[in-house]
Write a structure and sequence with these properties.
Layout (H helix, E strand, L loop, with lengths): L2 H7 L25 H7 L8 E2 L2 H4 L4 H16 L1 H23 L8 E4 L2 H17 L8 E5 L4 H12 L4 E5 L8 H16 L6 E7 L11 H10 L4 E6 L10 H4 L3 E5 L11 E5 L26 H5 L8 H4 L1 H8 L5 H24 L13 E5 L9 H15 L1 E2 L2 E3 L12 E6 L6 H16 L10
Parallel strand pairs: 1-10, 3-4, 3-5, 5-6, 6-7
Antiparallel strand pairs: 2-8, 7-8, 9-12, 11-12
The protein binds pyridoxal-5'-phosphate.
Length: 457
């Protein structure tokens, strides 16, 4: 992580900072947030639910919600004043904080958009224009992981396939034993894409942390391979990026990198950043003409400015980044400390669960961040996607546990293997009891002889 980011983690003096290129200054922290203060920050959570699924929708503390509401009221009180005097500088301020946190070269490289889905549409639309404009040849290739997020796969289909591109999926093993397995499958897909030099790989879409099953992908290595193999553009989908894994966009080296801020960075929905690497000697965007798919007054003024006004709507989620920074800096080590403790705790709880159930983890601890895949007992007979939904619903309705489940089809010849994995997460509001509740719920199902076939739809 870059030193500028570290300064930012320890900073409490960002509010009111208007210079987008200034580095946040250090200020010593006297006392850290207490357990009861954390409880109070998340007191709006449904207290009867063991919430071990931060991965789907993230979480937002009370102090950030209050900051958001202030912005919403400010707009409703005097919208014209808010529009002319507050909105643009506040979005710029948020972008400048993100720029420092992720070590971007310039604030112009950082756009704020609604979510990772929107960011993917921006990048893939640009790729489609490459085919439509004759820059790419029909049949040129886009490579993505087999475990790419479903909505992003649909976007690849909608933009790239429809424009004449061919899509090649990187087959990934699961359970996964080492990052070399991923690197080797990725190389195979690129070779296939190039077809002995007959075609070109125009775009690689690489997840930083796959959603289901959840695994941390060695993005830096894969981006490097893309460069060596002449892939035109690399887009990293890090919907679970900032606050979950190390994000240093210069070090990772992709052309585009998006991370939601509403998953692991405590923003309310909906906000993500999209980093677009500057090209050319003058650091301009070179031949890149990225546009927001929603066109409004700022069309043609650069993606970051276009994205800052896509018509009348609620922009408050984009404005609370300074409040989030204040929140995370109440924790020892700021966002780095939160990330490290979440990782340690989710591994500890994952290991506790597999020991209790006699199963195994879906990946090595070093290949997970704040989420880990935990094998479920084979006797639950999870044998389809619909079984995973039935089990998840049953755990919610009967045991007040919220956790997503993954179905892994058995490989030919496998008997009594683990076919279901739970994706557990850890965030600052979690307690060990949340995981004990899950452990006991599954033990209860097992001792009652329940299988997925016996659960209602
Ligand atoms: C890898 C990945 N990409 C994209 C998304 C989409 O995120 P959003 O719904 O916030 O756009 C998700 C959501 O979980 C995801 O896990």
């Amino acid at each position: 992580m870059a030193s500028s980011s570290l300064n930012c983690h320890n900073s409490h003096s960002l509010n009111g900072c208007s210079n987008p290129n200034s580095t946040p200054t250090k200020k010593p922290k006297l006392s850290f947030i207490s357990d009861s203060e954390i409880e109070s920050e998340f007191s709006h959570h449904d207290q009867i639910i063991a919430r071990i699924n931060n991965g789907s929708f993230g979480s937002c503390p009370q102090s950030v919600i209050s900051a958001q509401q202030k912005f919403q009221l400010q707009f409703l009180r005097q919208p014209d004043n808010f529009y002319f005097n507050t909105l643009k500088p506040s979005i710029l301020h948020s972008r400048s904080i993100i720029k420092s946190l992720v070590n971007a070269h310039s604030v112009d490289e950082i756009s704020l958009v609604d979510n990772a889905t929107t960011a993917a549409a921006i990048v893939l639309q640009n790729c489609a224009w490459g085919f439509d404009g004759g820059i790419f040849n029909k049949g040129d290739v886009a490579v993505m992981l087999h475990y790419a997020y479903g909505a992003v796969k649909k976007s690849v289909q909608a933009y790239v396939t429809r424009a004449g591109g061919e899509v090649i999926e990187v087959q990934l093993p699961f359970p996964v034993g080492s990052k070399e397995e991923i690197v080797s499958e990725f190389r195979k897909a690129l070779e296939k894409g190039k077809e002995n030099g007959k075609k070109r790989v125009r775009l690689a879409v690489i997840d930083h942390v796959t959603s289901m099953p959840s695994v941390v992908i060695p993005v830096k290595e894969l981006v490097k391979i893309c460069r060596e193999e002449g892939v035109d553009q690399v887009f990293v989908d890090a919907a679970h990026g900032i606050g979950c894994v190390d994000v240093d966009v210069r070090d990772i080296g992709a052309d585009f990198y998006t991370s939601n801020l509403h998953k692991w960075f405590f923003c309310p929905p909906s906000v993500a950043f999209l980093y677009c690497r500057k090209r050319g000697e003058e650091g301009n965007m070179g031949d890149l003409h990225l546009h927001h798919p929603v066109v409004s007054h700022e069309y043609g003024n650069g993606l970051a400015v276009e994205s800052a006004w896509i018509g009348t709507r609620d922009y408050s989620a984009q404005l609370v980044v300074p409040a989030v920074l204040e929140f995370i800096n109440r924790f020892e080590g700021g966002i780095e400390g939160i990330k490290r403790r979440n990782h340690e705790k989710v591994v500890e709880m994952g290991e506790m669960l597999v020991k209790a159930w006699g199963t195994s983890l879906g990946s090595l601890p070093e290949m997970c961040a704040s989420m880990i895949m935990v094998g479920l007992p084979a006797c639950l007979e999870i044998s389809s996607e619909s079984d995973t939904l039935k089990l998840r619903t049953h755990l919610r309705d009967h045991f007040q546990v919220e956790v997503p489940i993954y179905f892994r089809a058995p490989i030919d010849g496998e008997v009594s293997s683990i076919t279901g994995y739970a994706r557990i997460s850890h965030q600052v509001y979690n307690k060990d009891d949340d995981y004990y509740r899950f452990r006991d719920a599954v033990n209860q199902l097992v001792s009652d002889g329940i299988t997925c076939a016996s659960l209602s739809n």
